[in-house]
Design goal:
This protein is α+β, with helices and mostly antiparallel strands. Helix content is 49%, strand content 12%. It has 4 domains: 110 residues, Beta Complex (Beta-clip-like), CATH 2.170.270.10; 172 residues, no CATH class; 96 residues, no CATH class; 102 residues. Helix 4 crosses helix 7. Bound molecules: S-adenosylmethionine (SAM). S-adenosylmethionine (SAM) binds next to strand 3, helix 8 and strand 10. It comes from Paraphaeosphaeria minitans.
Length: 512
């Protein structure tokens, strides 16, 4: 099977069989599109996003933080389907499209349960079953979908099968498909969705829900991926992260590849049921992500005592003197726990206190550098919460630190989509600070810094997202605005470039 820049065949990763996988059918360059899918087979929104996101084109109408989602049309709203009272659409055209794609066959079944919150995987599974029953999914796509492993035996082994059976019963009933699919088949399909779905995201990677695509869900995982997926509404693009040779396997990362080895392994084992033997995992804790853990020599008396206390607290009885490795693992656990705690805290001020405590601990312990997790994750969370409480200046300095220390290490390719989006958010924050006349640092010209960053993104977003993505187009529009303004302000390109050089230096200093 071959299309675009890939073909599908059996895969072996680190000596173990990994089912089918995607392979490149020619040499590819970083930033090049490999496959474009206009719409995944199924996408299902989170309960919260059902309220403010179009269930057809997936435009998220809320949450546009200080201009970073300029690609969302101003004033856009969603209207509820009068029948099922669950899905909302941003236009009559979107409603009609969803209706014809299959909603007309499930709308009235959903009506009696309008006030029940149904999990996204149940809604997604219902959609798939109803559409297949009505002949709206062709045989080839269906076979490809059913080929994806349901991991039903793994769910039985880990004790989650009962929950799956229960959800499958509800799915059958609400979709009125019992006459077509038996209960074991539905349980398998439900399990297949749980273990093969990807995250539905906005062009700037805000999570919206889950999706299944019969073709793209055949891509295997690596913690050192060579491709990634960007979305633009329902459109998915698989793009090359770096140069790839013909016949190399194409990988995306199912988890955050910047996390340490043991955390990646455990997440992959729990959600996707495999022990990763990718090129990075074969190095174990010898890769950059675990650098900090090799710093046994930096374990000061204070750190040792702190770890001892934590270990004692976790165990009812003393099991002798812990090793330094155990102490390190405990300290790491402690910082990740703070990160997870902050994510759960709904009050941003409280979350900021938790995060600042954890960052101070990481820094004082002298174990972590700015690019070692969970420090960058804590900093990302800090920025979000500072923006939520209106501390734009504080958020700016955190962005500057992230830009200087974390981004180049975590996302070395200039067109890495996360790097591009984070830089864009930073540019929009700089522009906001310029508009309020805030003096962030002596001599800092925030309008010029914003323009410099936008200039960079106007180039890199074309590679990360492709020239036709709505995000890229909004960046280009912004760039043409600031470019004109700047030339007008400085008169000549030479004067502008000299000013830019000064601001580049200042930006780096602000990130110290
Ligand atoms: C989304 S599917 C990918 C397609 C899959 N290979 C297939 O043929 O159905 C995810 C599953 O593929 C397998 N898989 C993906 N990446 C792997 C890897 N690096 N090593 C081993 N198995 C992997 C695991 O069974 C995982 O649950």
């Amino acid at each position: 099977m071959s299309q675009d820049g890939y073909y599908i065949r059996d895969s072996t990763i680190g000596g173990q069989a990994a089912g089918k996988g995607f392979f490149s059918n020619r040499d590819l360059t970083g930033g090049e599109p490999i496959a474009i899918i206009q719409r995944p087979l199924m996408a299902s929104l989170e309960s919260e996003r059902l309220k403010d996101t179009c269930a057809n084109c997936y435009v998220w109408t809320e949450g546009s933080a200080i201009g970073s989602r300029l690609y969302v049309k101003r004033g856009i709203t969603v209207q509820m389907c009068a029948g099922c009272k669950r899905f909302r659409y941003c236009s009559k055209a979107c409603q009609k499209e969803a209706w014809n794609r299959g909603h007309k066959h499930e709308c009235k079944n959903l009506k009696p349960v309008a006030d029940k919150e149904l999990p996204k995987a149940v809604l997604g599974c219902m959609e798939i079953l109803v559409r297949r029953k009505q002949g709206l999914i062709d045989d080839q796509t269906w076979q490809l979908l059913c080929h994806l492993d349901s991991h039903i035996d793994d769910f039985k082994a880990n004790g989650n099968y009962d929950g799956i059976e229960l959800m499958a019963m509800g799915t059958s009933q609400f979709s009125a498909t019992q006459d077509t699919f038996n209960k074991d088949f539905v349980a398998q399909m439900y399990a297949r969705i749980l273990s093969n779905s990807m995250t539905l995201v906005t062009p700037t990677f805000e999570p919206l829900g889950i999706l299944i695509d019969a073709l793209l869900c055949h891509i295997n995982h690596s913690c050192h991926p060579n491709t990634y997926i960007v979305m633009d509404g329902p459109q998915m693009q698989l793009r090359a992260l770096r140069d790839i040779k013909k016949d190399e396997e194409l990988f995306i990362s199912y988890v955050d590849p910047t996390m340490p080895y043991l955390r990646r392994q455990s997440e992959l084992e729990q959600r996707w049921f495999f022990a990763c033997k990718c090129s990075k995992c074969q190095q174990g804790i010898a890769s950059q992500e675990d650098d900090w853990a090799r710093k046994l020599a930096s374990l000061t008396t204070h750190n040792r005592e702190l770890a001892n206390e934590e270990i004692k607290r976790a165990q009812d009885h003393s099991v002798g003197e812990p090793s330094d490795e155990q102490r390190l693992a405990t300290l790491q656990e402690k910082t990740f726990n703070s990160y997870e705690e902050a994510q759960q805290q709904s009050d941003p001020a409280e979350a900021i206190r938790t995060i600042e405590g954890a960052i101070a601990f990481c820094t004082e312990s002298n174990l972590w550098l700015a690019h070692h997790q969970p420090l960058p994750a804590l900093r990302d969370e800090l920025i979000v919460n500072m923006l939520a409480v209106g501390n734009y200046e504080g958020a700016w300095f955190e962005c500057a630190k992230r830009h200087r220390h974390a981004m180049p290490k975590l996302y070395p390719q200039i067109h890495h989509p996360i790097r591009v989006v984070q830089t864009w958010r930073m540019a929009m924050l700089a522009q906001y600070l310029a508009s309020t006349g805030t003096e962030v640092a002596v001599g800092a010209d925030m309008a010029l810094i914003a323009a410099m960053l936008i200039n960079t993104i106007s180039v890199t977003s074309r590679m990360s997202h492709g020239p036709d993505n709505a995000f890229t187009k909004s960046v280009q529009l912004k760039f043409s605005e600031v470019e004109g303004e700047l030339l007008g302000r400085f008169g000549s390109e030479d004067a502008m470039n000299a000013a830019i050089q000064r601001q580049v230096k200042l930006l780096s200093e602000m990130g110290k």
